[in-house]
Amino acid sequence: MVKRPMFKRISSKPFAAKVLGASVFLLMLPSSGLAQEEVWKSCNDVGVQYYEIKQYPQAEELLLVAVREAEKLSSDPQKLITSLQALRKVYLAQNKSTQAEEVAKRIRSLGAVPVGSEEKKEIANSQPPPAAHENSDDMSMTPLHPEIGKGIEAKPESENLSLRPPQGVTAVEQEAETEQTAKEKSSKTAAKENQPAIEEKPSKTVASAIGMAGEMRVSPGSREAVEVSQLIGHINWTRTIQISSDGTRALSGSDDFTMRLWDLGTGKEVHRFDGHENAVNCVVFSPDGRTALSASSDRSVRLWDLDGGQQVRRFDGHANIVTCVAFSPAGDRAASGGYDGTVRIWDVQTGKQIQCLGGDLKTVRCLAFSRDGSQLVSAGSDRLITLWSVADGHLIRRFVGHKDEIIDVAISSDNSKVLSSSRDLSVRLWDLATGTEIHSLLGHGNWVLRAEFMGDDRRALSGSLDKTFRVWDLSDGKETASFTLPDLGMWGLALSKTGDRAITGSNDFTLRLWKMNPQ
User: Of 37, 103, 123, 424, which is most buried, counting CB atoms within 10 Å of its CB?
Assistant: First the structure.
């Protein structure tokens, strides 16, 4: 008779919550260094115990917390190595070779040798099958790439400790499921709309990677984007990236609850910013590049000192997940939006809320100030672009035309035009003064994640889940160049103002810097 392990009766979620609850209590003790070490030890030890009894999801979530806590104990890298080695074993046990290799890279960078490769063979026959792909008939909630499944974001209303979405899901799609859940719990619940069919596109296909609506469309003369470097540090998927105005640095926010600052010249991490209690959904540099703002699923916006690596201020007021944040051109004001259907204007110096803009906005996904700071555009799941007066908060006008959620907006340097990127596969150019659509830029075969004005605003660069970057002539709305990417995932996307560089988040948690030559 085989004796059962003593931890076999551990119930996963309640026990994990108790462990972390005890860890929070320990952090309140006077000796913060000792408490931090106890937090790490508790999470690491219980995570290892879960691994030993083959409760791999529970082991993974606790060891991810242990890794984060070990990173804070910078004086003792051995603790970080210990947790990374255990996490690697858990990934191997679940046949997650990509994640296991990424953890191995971190271990090697710390001067240690990865162990645990032998475990994969020993337990291969005992693994549960990977989660089946879940389909959805709601096109507004499902990316068009067939390999993309549903994701479940940690909900701010619960103590969901999981940091890991299902394999194959993208960061953008991961939010889609959460939005529905958040809306159901919000006091501003709106009836679900009937989704119109995605508008038909003229065929520009030269090569098809999918063979369905939403296929990867490669234009004649398309070239490959060149990978310049990999930025290694995040231990979960990236949700948001921004390149500094001078092109020398980048910010990223992740499902590992951190924001990170990168030197693009060396590819090295400059600072890691801890403090958020849930995923970091949006990051943005201040106009002078000395500070940054982050927006999180923990319902907060935070201001950070980039040189010192410390939190300066916290902005509270949103009733649900905060998805986006933006600085005013002068840097004295900030705007944020989220699942509570509001846009909030903040005094950056004091942290006080100045305005709360509403009007049945549904989920607000993106924001942009006009270049003089007097106006603000917001957009999101209502498929509308809304123009606001910053001074008094009144609604000036709405731009109508998109057939699905709007993911990103940008305003031209002369304050005359707006670019919008949408899940309806289009980029659209608008007249800011009248709200009139000037051009619909068509060609992408999947959700368009971002579009930026280039140089003198006569061209634009866009990036999409169809694994392409495209350059557009804004005088006639025609595509002038395109660049293809390997199938590495696109967890977050940043485009340089010059249009020659981009950064994407990859399936292996790394960020990749790409070089293009738009000509």
Answer: 103
How many CB atoms within 10 Å of residue 53? 16
* Backbone Cα Rg of the chain: 23
CA distance 12 to 214: 39
> How open is the CA angle 96-110-127, to the nearest 5 degrees?
15
User: What tokens appear for 347 in the block?
Assistant: 């005094």
**Dihedral over alpha carbons 75, 76, 81, 83 (to 10 degrees):** -100
CA 137 to mean position of chain CA atoms: 24
Q: How many residues does the chain have?
A: 519
Tokens 């949006």 -> residue: 282
Quick one: average pLDDT of 149-155?
30
Q: Which residue has the higher pLDDT, 139 or 243?
A: 243
How far, in Å, CA of 325 to CA of 334, rounded? 7
Please report, to the nearest 10 degrees, the dihedral formed by the alpha carbons of residues 238, 91, 125, 114 taken in order: 140
Domains and CATH numbers, the chain: 12-125 (1.25.40.10), 223-515 (2.130.10.10)
Rounded alpha-carbon distances, angstroms, from residue 388 to 8, 147, 226, 383: 57, 38, 40, 16
Amino acid type, 270 = V
pLDDT at 412: 96
280 touches 253 (CB < 8 A): yes
**Does position 152 have pLDDT exceeding 80, yes or no?**
no
Angle CA(130)–CA(134)–CA(140) in degrees, nearest 5?
140
What SS3 class is residue 182? helix
Mean pLDDT of the region 187-216: 34
Average pLDDT of span 507-513: 92
Does 160 or 117 have the greater pLDDT score? 117
Classify the C-alpha dihedral 195-201-203-206 as positive or negative. Answer: negative
